[in-house]
Predict the structure.
Amino acid sequence: MLFEPLGGGWVAFSSLSGESHLLNAESVAVVETLDLLQPRTAEEVTELLAADSGIPAAELTEKLADAWSMLLQAGLIREQNATACLQI
Amino acid sequence: MNRAPARIPAAMAWLGALQQPNVVTAWTLPQWQRVLRLSRRLRLLGRLAEQVDAAGLTDQLPQAVAQQLRAEMRYSRWRTNLMRWTVERLSETLADAPQPLVLLKGSAYVGQDLPIAAGRLPSDLDILVPLEHIAAVQARLVAASWAEAEMDAHDQRYYREWSHEVPPMRHPVLPLELDLHHNILPPVAQVSVKAEHLLARLQPSLWSGWQVLHPFDQVLHSAVHLFQDSEARDRLRDLVDLDGLMRHFSAADPDFWPGLLARARELRFSNDLALACHFTQHWLGTPMPAAASAALAESMGWRRAGLLRLWSAVLTPTEPDALPSLRQGMAANVLLLRHHLGRMPLRLLVPHLWHKARANRAKSAKDLIADTPSDG
Amino acid sequence: MPSDRGLLTLGQAGLQQISNALRGDGLWLDVGVARMRVRSDEPSLAAQLQAVYQNFPLQTSSDWADLHIDLRRQSGLRRWLAPQVRFFCDGQVPFDPFPADAALPLLEWGANWLIGRRCNHLLLLHSGVVERQGLALVMPALPGSGKSTLTAALALRGWRLLSDEFGAYDPGEGVFRPALKPVGLKNQSIDVIRAFSPDAQLGPSFPKTRKGTVAHLAPDANAVMRVHETARPGAVLLPRWQAGSATQLLPVQPQMAFSTLAFNAFNYQVLGAVGFEAVVSLTQRCPVWQLIYSDLDDALARIEALWPDVLAREAA
């Protein structure tokens, strides 16, 4: 998984899918919260980000909904027994 | 005990590098040039590149050679990775399937991480599902955005009535075509096998949720595919795959050879296995017990000499600067006829061939017009 | 005039010499990213090659070529009714035949296809590339961009031509490599360039190809001599020809630049992580502008004016 800051956002590459993507702030936040050693559920990620950013969890869940499915389809994150785990 | 094979024809000697890559360090530039051109056409360049690379030899080679090897490795790894990713996406779609999901051919080799998984150029994904579950599986695929390739009434009928596959499916995002099989040979063909026989002996692969055919059946499928089915340009590659399968599986199983021959008899594929073993032994040096060799040769009977001559002419690759020989052309036509007659009755054959030729021409015209190159 | 090393060029050689080479072992053409070996039994090809490769050295033997191309006249009854020529490479025929009098376009497109398919040790942008003072100006091909016209014009005004088709970026060295083939001009571009530079070494026109009328500008002696000389990334220009518009240079945002280059490359996906890093690097190193223009001379003047800043920025 390769990430580079570019302009106002990020560009990312997944060696799993071979795809490249431009990421918005929400997606980057999700990816940064996950790591290989600690699989987390979507709820856990939302809670962490809510604590970090001060945005209420309910509002965040809505913002992040799109990001999850996009990241999964792009191979930037991967499910492991229903928790998402950053794929290296 | 294994008997040393007869000497390998000089023109085939380069194939030895696929098993013993060290020999390439002695190759001159003209030798390399010939091998690169031949192996590229035969779709073996990726395999050669991976073997040379695994032996740590690439950097020692002339730059122009190393460049071609590295370039082809990149291309092959990209395509193989696409295949893995497609299987992963399919796993999502077909998870909790009640029926077995079986990887076939190249996807099976990659799914077992066999030595012959390296350097491949997959353009499609072959999987097998029992006939009674095909409709359900297709429905799930369609729900996940897979669509049947567009085809006219003739092709649709071909697939539905005569074939062992359903029409290939495509996905808007995933670039590989999905070929869904319910058998390894067409049911209408003279040479066929009941799918239940194969399904009864499935083995797990390295990918959870996916199975592969029993090693004997993988070898037999490959042999039957080569001598009944495959595109002209892939035949030597198929032979190399067969050699690889036999070496790998026989190393793991002391009873491999008697078991393989028994299975071939059971499924009535002895003829194709005999042809396969003849050429892998004589051109690639596959180690084989003398008894097995003799039994197979005998099983071919009176047709043996003639068939070997024909196949030898067809399988021998044309040298890079030469045009295919007349003899090779005639032999190819005889075999092609045999192949098609074996697959379908004559009344269906003629419209089918005309149709296929027309589709191929249309495709190549499209390729040249497009601005960006596409893989042939 | 003989080339520096005293070798004959195709332009100086006799037509018979070229023809004999094509019918024999072949004619070798080194375009930088690939050494091509061309054989053919089509009589018209010799003169066509002489025109568009006129500044290339005449090379009739070698122990190496990266591409082995054979253009064969179709045999059989068609030979007289509607003669055709087929493109062979290592015994394979990837395309439909062309009319026999359009052998050169078939050779050029076919060779480009092979380069695009094979040269995966490089990132191949679909771009024109010229060089000045060691830095590359890269012009990605977009619909309506007129990149070939612009590339040809720059090459005729003292910029060194690297390629009109391939921005061949070496990710290991971080430089562009020449893929020096005749510049393919289509339809009105041919007249535009003829008007722009009446002395331009243009080859024959081929009407009624699948892309309209096609003609080729021969790479000049300087470009041919420096066919293995690389160029560091300088700037990226996304050209857009727009009737009647004044010349404008509009900066392009990095994320947009990244997408454009990634989509533009022939083999971006094939290169995987290497391709990703290469495009990131190019986007970070090079200023990227959109160039909107209608007047070719004015556009060139604007580019010339731009270059000192590009040089200064790169040096910093």
